[in-house]
Structure formats: structure tokens, C-alpha cells
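Why do we care about 3D structure at all? Because function follows from shape, and shape follows, mostly, from sequence. That is the central idea of this module. The next example makes it concrete: a single protein chain, its amino acid sequence, and then its structure expressed as C-alpha cells.
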Amino acid sequence: MKYFIKLLVLLITVLQINSVMAAENIAGTWQGKLITSPGSEMTLQFIIKQEANGSYSVTLNSPDEGGIKNVKASSMVFNSGNLKMDVTELSGSYEGIFKDGKIDGKWKQEGKTFPLSLIPYEKPTLSKKDMEKLLGAWNGILTIPGGSLTVVFRFEMTKEGELAGFLDSPDQGGYGIPVNDIEMSESSLSLKISSIKAQYKGKVVGNEIVGDFTQLGSPNPLSLKKGEYKAQGYNLNLSKENMEKLLGKWNGKLGPLTLVFRFEKTKEGSFVGYLDSPDQGAKGIPITEASLTDGKLNLKVKSVSGEFNGQLSGDKLAGEWTQMGMKNPLSLTKEKP
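And the structure:
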């Protein structure tokens, strides 16, 4: 059962398989678009390396699909320009012909066959000037059906002198989602966030980027301004007595997931609350509303469409967590100072 919105799952393994020596060397990264139906496509990559003994090491990835990461192929044969590969883990196989610098072939899976052509892939590069333009944080508000979310893009330089990008969704407690395929030409910026099947395209004008954020095929306008993001807190209007009852950390289990409610006082004297989901790497999701009457506590977390209703008894909270129409029992215990 899905208990919580998951922003990111990243699994990395290494695949080593044997292949047959061939006259042609097809070592490298090969990429193509697998179109399974009108409007539905997936990027597939075959990363092929030739070892010193002539065998090949192969990795099958999909930048668009988080579940396809370094999938093991059960067999591979490459002979006289003909490539055959079985991928038992995906119940699939690939056959292609290497000619004129590309591979034309077909992907078969669960009784269906789809054309799949592969060409050499090269990671996009950026000029030093473009990297300097992007360095730093850019934030804006993404309006979506049913509400809005804060979006933050952060660009940093790695030790190797390359530009690394990350996406934060502070309202959902999601931080450090990798940005890949960063391209920029004549101030036109293109980004992919493959782990959540999203992309952003916009025009960089000074300290502003105007463009569209697309996820799962639905584009929404998103303008970004350069500058550090300051999280918005929601003042929870409770009596002093109730604040003292809630102040601190409350830990509980929602199925297999740990959930934490944190209630704090700011330097300005405001009373604020946050939801953390440590198992999913989510922290600081703002609690937007709270009420406590006769021991009955109601909390709302707008950004994840979540709500908690429970009974407060000393350092115990017993109730239900509701999200996306699903209700699940949730009991929490207050952490001792």
C-alpha cells in the first residue's frame, strides 16, 4: 500500500556480463526513444564497455524511468554487426543491426514488439559563461491544479569543474533531486529531472528565467528569480496552554514509514509546525493549520493534501492520517527533551 507521496527513489548497481568478441567495437553509450503508444515514450540507454579480455560490461538505464537503473541483461551476442540481448529482469529483449554509426533494431517485451533505434549519446556541455550565469539558487511558484508549490533550482560547481543541478520542493519536504541534461544555447535553457519524469524549458533574461515546467506530459508556466529561498512558516494560532502541550517532536509509524510532527517557537515568538518523513528524505513540510479542542487535535498539511485527526493524552497521540482519500491509523509519542 502506498502510504505517502514519494519524490525520489534511486538504486545503483553494477552489471558485468560476457559478450562475444566482434570486429566492430561498439563500446560507448547508446540512446534511443522507445515509443510504446501515441504520446508515450521512454528514453533507453545501453552503456557498453569493452574490458581488457575482450568481454563487454553492459548497463541498461532509463533516464525517464526511475525503476530502470543498471538492469542486468541475461545474455548478449554481437557478431558481424548483429546485436542480440536478453533482459530477463524486464521480460524483454533487443535485436539490432550496427551500420553507419547507429543501431537499428526492435525491442520485444511481453509479446509486443516496438522499433528502437540507438545512436551514440554524448552528455551535454555548457560554456564557462553559461555556467557562471546559472550558478546559485533560482526559485518561483508553480501553479498546478488544486494549488501551488514552491520550486527551487540550485546550481553548483563540482570538484571536477562541472555544473551540477538540484531541484528542491520545500513545500513537500523534497530536497536535492538531481537535475540532468542541462543545456543552454543563446539564453535558452533546457533541464531534465528524470527521476520524477519532468523537464523545464525557459529563457534566461538577467536574473529571471521565464518558461514551462512539464511533468507527466502536463506543462505549467514557471518563472524563476535568482536568489536564496527563504522558507515560509505558517503561524499556528493556538492558546499558550495548547502550545506548551504540543511543543517538541512527536514520532510515529504510518505502516512501514516513520512520520514526525515537530512543533517549535520562532525567534519572533510565532508557533509553527512541520512534518518530516525521514525514510523518504523529506523534512520540513509545513503544517498549515492546527486546532486543539478538548484534547482533539486536527492538523492540515496542504502541500501533500494530508490531514491528521487524533486524541491527545499526555505524551501520546492516537488517531488517523488521511491523504489522497486514504485513511490509515497513526499513533505518535512525544520525544523526551
